[in-house]
Amino acid sequence: AELWNKDYKNVIEHCNKALGVAKPNEKAIFQIKQAKAYELLEDDAPAKTVLEELLKNDPANKEAKELLDNITSRSYKNAVSASYLNVAFSNPGNAPWHYSYLEYKRNFKKCPVLARVNYANTAGQDGYQVEADAYPKLGKGTYAYLNGGYSSSNDLFPGLRAGADVYQKLVRGFEMSLGARYLHYSTEDVVIYTIYAGKYYKNLWFAYRPFAVAKDGDVFFSHTGTIRKYFSNPENYISLNLIYGATPYTTASFIDINKVNSQRIGIDFQYKIAKSFLIKPMFSYEYEEYFPRLFRNRFYSQLILIKRF
Prior knowledge:
The chain has helices at residues 8-21, 27-40, 44-57, 62-74, 254-257, and strands at 78-90, 94-107, 112-122, 125-134, 137-139, 142-150, 160-169, 174-184, 189-201, 204-215, 218-230, 237-245, 261-274, 277-291, 294-308. By secondary structure, it is α+β, with helices and mostly antiparallel strands. A 14-stranded antiparallel beta barrel has the order 1-2-3-4-6-7-8-9-10-11-12-13-14-15. The longest helix is centred in the first third of the chain and has 14 residues, at 8-21.
């Protein structure tokens, strides 16, 4: 009950008392709970000590192995990611669009930082963009998202982009954020305002994020919703994504900014195929109003590969 109530220090104290009187075949129950409490307090060293002791006596304990694997994964300071996204069209058809990126992430203690190079090939044009993200911790349960980018390939990418969000963890698994995005194109500036509300419940995550896009003196709204199920290893999950409205969800090309409306449904997976290697495919379908009362189908296919070290 204390573990679910996030009273982790009492969990550790009570497990210590229990381990002093428990029979040998009962100790694993309390060691697992104690290790989880240490992990959730981000105190990895004693968590690893508890799990390693458990595995000496019970080498086949699956839950202990998975928990130790998760803690070991957090110790990686660096990650390199590569992505390819294909956007295909039908009724009417169009040549596919191609997007890719190469990304490097460094986990500093209080501020993970990412640097990324994006490439696009759409409508017979090529373009590049450089971006950087940072996630500074501002206090207990509070962190920020900061983004900046530059491109000389106007229209394929915004010439300048910037973004910021402030996230706050709340009680009972709730969290929320408030933020904005700025996109500068050769012919106009676009400002996007957004809020986010999320809820964790057992192995599920529910998220809702609306957007308000201000351009040409008008404001357009869109909505995104996500339901995600985590498996025994929290790095393995499957998500259902639902999007309604005119805000670009995956890309930020000038063409996407000027679409009228769309409805989109998609799924994505993340699966750890080795201790330091993750694979993340995504598939989605969009019914797009690309011009008033003119519609077409879009199909998105993406693959992301992540290597940590």
